Amino acid sequence: LRLKHVAEVKETSILPMLTVDMENKENGSLDVKNSVENGRPPDPADWAVTDVVNYFRTAGFEEQANAFQEQEIDGKSLLLMTRNDVLTGLSLKLGPALKIYEYHVKPLQTQHLKNNSL
């Protein structure tokens, strides 16, 4: 009985942490579950150019996604992009470029760093 009780306590303490983690991933970018369902590797560093393009199409940037194709931006390149690269290097309109950087590129970079510094 004692062991069973400990296991139950562990389960309840882990679940809220998972929930918080998923909320963070959904904040401004597609969560990892969606990425896997869409056929992309969970780590953006492993994405091919087509994965990057499909990510931005899925995120609602149909028009802008083509710029990533034209500039041959794969996952590794995406993770290296600066704000200036996104705003000027892709020849995008300023509004969408700001949203792409702030709500997608930056969070993907942050998440990648977190996952790879553990």
TrEMBL record:
Classification via CDD domains: SAM_Atherin-like
Coiled coil: none
The protein's name: Sterile alpha motif domain containing 13
An annotated Gene Ontology molecular function: chromatin binding
Listed GO biological process terms: negative regulation of DNA-templated transcription
Pfam families found in the cross-reference section: SAM_1
Gene Ontology, cellular component aspect: nucleus
Ranges where the SAM domain occurs: 47-95
Domain of life: Eukaryota
